[in-house]
Specification:
By secondary structure, the protein is α+β, with helices and mostly antiparallel strands. The chain has a domain of 162 residues: Replication Protein E1, Chain: A. 57% of the residues lie in helices and 10% in strands. It is built from 13 helices and five strands. Strand 2 and strand 3 form a beta hairpin. Helix 6 packs across helix 11 and helix 7 crosses helix 8. The longest helix has 31 residues. The termini are far apart. 22% of the residues are buried.
Length: 286
């Protein structure tokens, strides 16, 4: 028992006597050195730090969310400010506002009140919405000369197309075209036709025959066709040199729409014409 008590009373550290001596001299213990972290704990600590960084980058904090909200509010404010600037600009430039308003005024008109140009434009728009075909046709020298010398060039070409349609069993297909003199002096036509399920190769043959065969120009360059997507835009393109065409033809008609397209375009216009003027709230007369 005495041996056991003596062993328990012995210090457990070899530096125990040194610590006691030092404490007795100075009255305080020396500063303890920090323990050394094992390598495994270091790796675990590094992984935790990386995960915190990734979590902070991927998950928005409250501050970031508030900043995003402020940015969206600023964007909305900017949109409102832009709208006010546009409204102010139109107030200072009333002529532009009237011009833009009148650009689509024909949509409120009755069919009988539309001009010939507006009716033709509606015909092009109808063709675009019914899988119509846009075409550009070059004439042979003989047909070009006859068309220019005719008292009604547009009617002359329309009769030629109608004759060829009847010849190939396609009578009554809706079509329209605009004659054009390019800046280079080239006389040709841009137009539309609604196939109504008929053979496209046959329709191409009709227009090639109507334009006249020209061995020098070749078949490939005589007629170009493509699906029609923007009727209003293509109509504007067809009339791009109308001033030159009017001068060369001395005011004679250079655009035409056949009766079939005129009838369906009229129904298309009346069915899609707004019954109320949004700006004035007035009922459009029937």
């Amino acid at each position: 028992m005495s041996n056991l008590q003596s062993s328990l009373s012995q210090p457990h550290s070899p530096n125990h006597n040194h610590i006691q001596q030092t404490a007795g001299k100075s009255g305080s213990f020396p500063e303890a050195k920090p323990d050394v972290i094992p390598q495994q704990n270091k790796e675990r600590s590094s992984l935790s730090a990386v995960s915190r960084v990734v979590r902070n980058e991927t998950t928005p904090t409250k501050t970031q969310a508030q900043a995003t909200t402020k940015t969206l509010s600023a964007q909305e404010t900017g949109t409102e400010q832009l709208g006010k600037l546009i409204a102010t600009w139109f107030d200072n430039n009333p002529w532009h506002a009237v011009r833009i308003k009148n650009a689509h005024a024909y949509l409120n008109k009755r069919w009988r009140d539309l001009s010939k140009v507006e009716k033709c434009q509606r015909g092009f728009q109808y063709a675009a919405e019914t899988e119509g075909i846009a075409l550009s046709l070059n004439f042979s020298d003989m047909i070009e000369t006859r068309a220019q010398e005719h008292e009604d060039p547009a009617a002359y070409m329309s009769d030629r197309v109608a004759t060829k349609l009847r010849k190939h069993g396609l009578a009554g297909l809706p079509f329209a075209f605009v004659l054009e003199f390019s800046k280079e002096g080239k006389f040709h036509a841009h137009g539309v036709i609604v196939p109504m399920g008929k053979s496209l190769p046959t329709i191409k043959k009709v227009f090639r025959e109507a334009g006249g065969r020209d061995l020098e120009k070749g078949v490939a360059r005589q007629l170009m066709t493509k699906p029609l997507f923007g009727g209003q835009g293509f109509h504007r393109y067809a009339r791009k040199t109308r001033k030159t065409t009017i001068v060369v033809l001395e005011g004679r008609r250079f655009a035409i729409m056949n009766r079939s397209l005129n009838a369906v375009a009229r129904d298309y216009h009346e069915n899609n014409r707004p019954k109320e003027r949004c700006s004035l709230g007035l009922v459009v007369p029937e």
